[in-house]
Amino acid sequence: MFSPNKVSFAGLLIALGIIYGDIGTSPLYVLNAITSGKTITDELVIGALSLIIWTLTLQTTIKYVILTLNADNRGEGGIFSLFALVRRRGKWLVAPAMLGGAALLADGMITPPISVTSAVEGLKQIPFLSTIEQSTIVYIVIGILSILFFIQQFGTAFIGKFFGPIMACWFTMLAILGIVHLADDLQILRALNPYYGIRLLIEYPHGLYILGGVFLCTTGAEALYSDLGHCGKWNIRYSWIFVKACLILNYFGQGAWLLSQYKGQAITTDMINEGFNPFYGVMPHWFLYFGIVIATAAAIIASQALISGSFTLISEAMRLNLWPKLRIQYPTEARGQLYIPTINLLLLAGCLGIVVYFQKASNMEAAYGLAITLCMIATSILFSNYLVLNRIRPVFIYLYLAIFLTIELSFLYANIQKFPHGGYVALIVGGLLFLIMYIWFKARKIKNRYVEFVRLDHYISKIQELSNDRSVPKYATHLVFMTSADNPKEIEHKIIYSILNKKPKRADIYWLVHVDTMDDPYTSEYKVEHIIPNDIIRIDFRLGFRVDTRINLMFRKVVEDLVANKEVNVINRYESFASNSNVGDFQFVVMEKYISQDTELPFIERLIMKLHFWVKDLSLSEEKGFGLDPANVTVEKFPLIVGAPARLRLKRVED
Amino acid sequence: MIDMKNEEKTRWGDEAPGWKDFFLVLVVTALLIAVSWVAWFKLHWFH
Lengths: 655, 47
Known about the structure:
The structure holds two protein chains of two kinds.
Chain A: H1 9-18, H2 21-24, H3 30-35, H4 42-67, H5 79-86, H6 94-108, H7 111-120, H8 134-150, H9 157-182, H10 194-203, H11 210-214, H12 221-226, H13 228-231, H14 233-262, H15 269-273, H16 278-281, H17 288-319, H18 341-358, H19 361-365, H20 370-389, H21 394-416, H22 423-449, E1 453-455, H23 460-468, E2 474-482, E3 490-492, H24 493-502, E4 506-518, E5 524-532, E6 536-544, H25 551-564, E7 586-594, H26 603-618, H27 622-625, E8 633-639
Parallel strand pairs in A: 2-4, 2-7, 4-6, 7-8
Antiparallel strand pairs in A: 1-3, 5-6
Helix pairs in contact in A: 1-9, 1-14, 4-10, 4-14, 5-6, 5-20, 6-20, 6-22, 7-8, 7-17, 7-18, 8-17, 8-18, 9-14, 9-17, 20-21, 22-26
Chain B: H1 19-41
């Protein structure tokens, strides 16, 4: 059997191709972001490199690679998997999960534009193209991103297998370019000592703000955890040794080159606009053609990882009832290959909007990282709860929180200065995404609060009477109701009302189908309870949050199993068909709630419900959300009546 | 109670690169580097 934890050549390459795109393309812009507007000195360059090395060590290696990767949910990682693992510890944990998910998506929207723009801006390094207009670069970036988003619908399995080998070449190139320039100024090796980093933060004017640029070297760390299920813990850990070595060597090379070429000079905005970039600076001129091509390829691979990661994140959020239901497609048979057209379109619009709005990579650097810091803080909070669940000694948990919250809050403080420089874009987008999650989550709570459940056994005899009452026209041979009652002895009052009162629905067999979302990602089970054999049957589906809800197919499979086991007779019972053994028709009934004019809710809850129904109109219908065939579905609308309506003053008058 | 079998654990499917893919990328990379060298030193493109 396949084991993602087994270290293999393919596994290591896949980790390189999927996980390290974002973090691996950081050398394209990190030192530009740090040195912009500053004079190149030993103190700045060695201090900044020291901060980069120790950020990669503390934040990426220790927090994510060593610690957080242990918090796998049956092999799956990511903020929602972690939430599913720990949510039984407290209802409030949904808040950091939603915050982290929204922030990850929002800042992730900047990853493709910043990586691709930085790579394409390398064209300015070629003498012949040094005067290339920024608008031309913007057009090229828009073209690349548009093609990338367009091909998502076809799946990326074919080109996906080249991602790992290309990234292996990319990282090797980073290391070689770094080694070649190490000798430019060997004192750069002093950066291994954290003292220089700390001194820079303390002594350099506004030194703490340098962390805003330094943080860009670790923005991709969350991806390590999100893609855990794809590559396996040990493939990620072993490949990280190679990746980290290559990254540090390259940063060393860039630092040594800066000191040897620009010591004492100020890096002005004009220089950056004209193409100054230490990443391309360490490349010999003849190598630039290839360097730009592979940098663009690496940026595309990083963008692809972000897009796939967003689809996975949203699909998990949907199953955890934190996001409106959207249509999911499966372009290939490979597990995890999914495509959500609406999200693809939103991401494309967001990425193109960012490219057009910011134009230059240097402008994007000034905006990037603020939201992802919030995601990392959310992960720290959730992970500390995971440690509590695993009975880790409190002293270690407090130590973990003290160290990493200090680091992350320092980054947050430094990144807040990005707010007026464009950081507000990611925060606004993240805020909107969080609002959608909150509305969806809260509206469900409000709806559940007002769902009235009744004891099923009180109505069994009436349902049986109806089933045998031939004076009532038969509604369907098999009538299937989707129920939200967790307790099999209960049922929503509205279902009873629908069967017995609204318009009596006579059927031979009544099926009650309940879907439970499990914390285990890939659970796919069902349980059958014959409440009245061959008359009322309840099926409970237990589906993990990574399993697609296709009730139509699953229900058919259950019925086939039951028929094979002779537990149910699905042949229709029409007298004229007595000689034929036709399978009876199945009709699904789905209940939909709406706010009636009589509904009385507090202002905030009413507003949430209004927004919820507005968002719901834009999302997938209830029946499609369950994966039902619309041809066999009846949707019944029920008012969400809350409390007694205000006393109506109405008086009868006589003529 | 009847349980469906759990699905197979995560697999890489078509995305899994083999040695052939790895060497193909290496060869293409080497070719591109060679083209880059020739373009600069011999053909003097984009100087």
